[in-house]
Amino acid sequence: MNLNGVRVVVTGGAGFLGSRIVRVLEVRGAHVVVPRKRDYDLVDRAAARRLLESIKPDLIVHAAAVVGGIGLNRDHPGSLFFENLLIGAHTMEEARLAGVSKFVSIGTVCSYPKYTATPFSEDDLWSGYPEETNAPYGLAKKMLLVQGQAYRREYGMNAIFLMPTNLYGPGDNSDLGTSHVIPAIIRKCLESKNEIVVWGSGNATREFLYVDDCAEAVVLACERYDKSEPVNIGSGREISIADLVEMVRKLTGATAPVRWDKSKPDGQPRRRVDTARAQREFGFTALVPFEDGLRRTVEAYR
Length: 302
Description:
This protein has a single domain (7-171, 208-237, 272-288), classed as Rossmann fold, CATH 3.40.50. It is globular, with a radius of gyration of 19 Å. It has ten helices and twelve strands. Strand 1, helix 1 and strand 2 (31-33) form a beta-alpha-beta unit. The protein is of the alpha/beta class. It has a six-stranded parallel sheet with strand order 2-1-3-4-5-10, sandwiched between helices. Strands 6-9 form a two-stranded parallel ribbon. It has a two-stranded parallel ribbon with strand order 7-12. It has helices spanning 18-27, 45-55, 70-75, 77-98, 135-155, 181-191, 211-224, 241-252, 276-282, 290-301; strands at 7-11, 31-33, 59-62, 102-106, 159-164, 166-168, 196-199, 205-206, 208-210, 231-233, 239-240, 258-261.
């Protein structure tokens, strides 16, 4: 797909990842429309229909999600499942009815089984149940893959499914009640005076991808990928939460000691994805080294 002049709707286009996707699409020459929830609450199917009738897009990038860290997932599993399921199902169904040329779903690494051999291969996506804390969110997003593959078989719809790993970068949500791990640790290191309290044991590992790299991957897939198989989007680097905390402490100059709150969950034990399919199918390789991206993120928070 040559994106020059193409009319694109990016759901969630004002968000952390979505705003970067919009920027990259516009550089490619696309005409981008970002619907706002106050005007089009996609939990309501009629709102999704009104959106598509008014914009008539050629391409939809579905990046909208109700999302947060372990705390939010633990406290609101029902609403996370319900809202993410409905906004995806309604938007794709109305896109099908409107004859949208291509539908790009942004999934999540949380869809993988709790115990998956690392690096996570897309072929292992159905080999078990997700980590319990993230399961309602991860399964709701995973239904976009099921729906897209079903619509491809029955209606010939060009629907693809991308699974980014944990994202980070400037501008991420740093509310300690809803944030992901990196902005939470940065905030605690800069604001905590007596001790830095971190959830879990520190033994869990994560793979982090700089948000601008992810946006480039999504747009490359818009241009070059038209298959039904899901695709991981990642950096290929794994780091323990304990090592991550030490990196952030050094970058922030924090001197308070760390206390691990082991009454709180670690989440998935390990997380690193196989990035070979993204490289092979649409030429994506992450460019921003983790240390550089983390430094930029700390400086932006300051």
